[in-house]
Task: structure prediction
Amino acid sequence: MQKRIKDHKPDSSKTVPVSNAIHYDAALLFPVLFLVGAGIVMVYSASSALALKKYGTEYYFMKKQALFSGMGLMMLVMCRHMPYRTYRLMSYPMMTAAVVMLLAIKLSGFGISAGGSARWLRIGGMTFQPSEFARLALVIYLAYSLSKKADHIRDFSIGFLPHVMVLGLLSALILMQPDFGSVVILSAITWIMMFIGGVRIRYLTGVLPVLLPAAWLCMIQAPYRLKRLMSFLDPWQYSNDAGYQIVHSLMAFGSGGIGGKGLGNGYQKLFYLPEPHTDFIFSVIGEETGLIGVAVITLCFFWIVIKGIRIAVNAGDLFGTYLAMGLTTAIGLQVCVNMGVALGLLPTKGLTLPFLSYGGTSLLINMASVGILMNIGARQAS
Result:
């Protein structure tokens, strides 16, 4: 894998000179903007009843999502024009900032809890989820480290151990929140990026007999995680308990049919399906827009992933290749896990659907990731 990446040379006829690289990749930008716009509409549809009951106005979550979308667009533009090689210098400071913020949740007075988990920092009137930033910081760190160590990447003490230690530190801090789903995503990103970077297969697979039992212990030590696993295997048996979310999510998809019930006409969002505007917004999309809407959303995500892979393959250096692959992997894994949970294919995890789910931190980080991808794609000749 490492040899193939090193030997790959971008097609000079398709590269864009840095001085002229001011365009935006419409093929990548359009599906992203479509998803963001659809997210504003679906957040309103999914949350209007909840917002009216809790805040006295049905537009509460929609207005905030629209604000987040505007901020996210500015983040995309900023990252699009920032040379991606700048992130090599920012890798260690960003990783340090991520660790400090994760520690601050427990050790400072800025940490706040919701739903039994302490995953947010509140500074002034703004809330921020450090685990989202930690994911971006990890991708940038891995891209820099793997490219810097390319000549010795097959050595255990250079190509494998340091990266696993960094992952272990972040995982330990995130598990304190607790947020097992984010740890799974971070671990998958790390393993995929190390595989692409050329780390020996025997190192990547040899440690699994140790990590998998450890993951199992983490799961069974928390009773609610074990209940989620059991309800995943047979949600209807636990329909009034741990399987409640999955059951009502499947009912939403089932009642949506081919064309859906129409925007705003969904039933499960009316205090039956928990978190309809965040973790289970895909279920609301399935009920109100049907198979057609689900197919359109899925195709948009599929195209974003394909574009990200193409940008990585055509990048001008190893750092750009690893960075593009890491960012694309992060978005793709979030999509697969969120959709898998909503469809009952995976145990319940508290992960949002990129660009669509309500939430400022997730939207800002994912929009920044798209901006970085665009910069890599436009600067292949640098």
Remarks:
- The longest helix spans residues 281-313.
- The beta strands are 111-114, 117-123, 126-128.
- The chain has one domain: 2-378.
